[in-house]
Amino acid sequence: MTDPRTLLVARCQSCHSRFLPRPGACPRCGAANVSPIAIPPEGVVLAAVELLAPSTGWPSPHRLALVQLADSIRVLALADRTPPLGAHVVVERDGETYRIAPVA
Amino acid sequence: MSAHVASTGIGRFGRRPEALVDLVAEAGAIALEGIGRKTVDYLVVGTMAAGDLGGVDNLVPRVAERLGLEGAQGVRAEAASASGAAAFHVAHAIVASRAADRVLVVAGEKMTDHPTAEIARTLARSLAPSEQAVGATMPALAALVAQRYLDQHGLEPTAFDAVSVAARSAAARNDRAQFQDPVSLADVAASRPVALPLRLLHCSSVSDGAAALVLEHGEGPAGVLGVGQGFDSVMLVDRPDLASFRATRSAARRAYEMAGLTRKDLRFAELHDAFAPFAVIDLEDIGVCGAGEGARWFSSGDTGPSGRFPVNVSGGLLGRGHPVGASGLVQIAEVARQLRGEAGAMQLDPTPRVGLAQSIGGLATHNFVTILGGETGP
Lengths: 104, 378
Hints:
The complex is a heterodimer. Chain A is an all-beta fold. Helix content of chain A is 0%, strand content 45%. Chain A has strands at residues 7-12, 18-19, 34-39, 42-51, 62-68, 74-78, 88-94, 97-100. Chain B is 37% helix and 17% strand. Chain B is built from 14 helices and eleven strands. Chain B has helices spanning 20-34, 50-54, 59-66, 83-96, 116-123, 129-132, 138-153, 161-171, 185-190, 246-259, 276-285, 294-299, 316-320, 324-339, and strands spanning 3-10, 42-46, 73-77, 102-109, 193-195, 198-199, 209-217, 223-231, 268-270, 354-359, 366-373. In chain B, the strands form three sheets. Chain B has a five-stranded mixed β-sheet with strand order 1-7-4-2-3, with helices on both faces. In chain B, strands 8-11-10-9 form a four-stranded mixed β-sheet. Chain B has a two-stranded antiparallel ribbon with strand order 5-6. The two termini of chain B are 14 Å apart. Chains A and B meet through strand 4, strand 5 and strand 6 of A and helix 5, helix 6, helix 7 and strand 5 of B.
C-alpha cells in the first residue's frame, strides 16, 4: 500500500540523483538501477499558468502549476484554480498525472 | 572555412494556398537560380511535421523531382522547431566531409489548414509525455519560463512588450514577412491573454512558408565559421533554471570555439523568438548581455537595426511568421543575405562581416547556433 501522504519518485543508485519516475535509465548518468523513494507531497508554487488557448480535448481556461517539492524535484500539476506564486500546496498523483489537491 | 552560402531563396510567409512541396520547391528554385542552375549533388530537406500538418511524407524524392535534381542524393532532417537549422547543420557536415561539394538545403512547413487547438496538440508532441498528459502546450510552458524569468529578475510583465514592437517594426521592412503592419506598446499590452504573462502579440503565428539556400565548398562572405548544438532535459521540470536555456549556451559555446571567435566579434543576430521572452533569454544565452539585462536591450533600441547589436532585422519569428520547420533555415538565410549585401530594405549599414543565427527546437531541448562570416573575420 502506498501512503497517500507521500509521493513516489525515483532515485538513481549510481549517481543518487532524484527525479520524477519515467521509463528507462537515469536521465543524468544513464545508469539502469533506479529505485523508488517516497517524498512528502507538499510543495511551493514556482509558477502557474492559465492557458486560454488549450490543446484539443482540454477546457479553456486550462490551469497548470509548476510546483517545487523536496529534493529539488519539480512537478507540472493540473490545478482547479490558479494558485498564487509561493503558495504552499499538496500534490496528488492521479495515474500518470499530478494534480494540486483541493484545499480542504 | 570550407563551406559558404552561395545563394538563398525565401518565399512569402503567411497563409499560402499551396501545398508543402510547392512552397519548398518555390524557395528551392530561387536558390538554384542564384547559382545559375549549377549542378547540386545533395538535397537536405527540413520539416518538423510534414505528415501531421502538411499531409505529406517521403519529401526528399518529391522535392528532387520538382527541382530536376534526380541525379542528386538527399536526406530529411528533423529537430522540432529547429528543423531548418538541423537541415543546415547536416548539409554543413556533408560539405565539410567532401561527401558533396554543393548542397541544396530547403525547409518549410504548411500549418494554416488546421485549427489552432490541433496545431497546439501537434506541436506539443515535441514535449515530454508526462507534460502532454496534463495538457501542456508550447505557449503554456513558455509562459512558465516567462514567469520564472520575471520573478528571478524582478521585472514587470510588460518587460517583453518591446520585443514584439521591434519585431513587427522590422517585419514591415520585409516584404516576405507575414505581418506588414507595425504595432505599438499599447497594442501589445491590449492584445488578448494567451497564457499570462504571454499575450497574443508575444506569440508567433501559425504560418506557411519555406526557405532555401545553396551551401557549397569554398569561400565567400557568408562562410560557415562555426556551428554548434546543445540539448536540455525533455522534461521541463528537470531543469534547475528556467530563465536561461542550457541548450543555447552549449550550442553557442561550441560554435564560438569552432569559429575561434567571441560574442564581441559578432555584429548582429537572428534569434528564435517564437515567444517574445525567448528573444530576451536568447540574447543573454549567446553572451551579448548578462542575465536579466536582455529586456532593456530591446526597450532601449540597442537591438534595433541601427543599434549596437541588431537582432532580428528581418522581423524574427514574431514578425515573419513561424512555419515551424522553415524558421531555423530562414534565420540562417537572412544572416547570409546580410553578409552578402543582398538584404534589400533590411540591409544593415555598413554591410556586416560576422553574424549569428540561433534556433530553438521543442521547448529549448535541441538548440542550434550557426556563425557565418567572411574569411578574414570581423
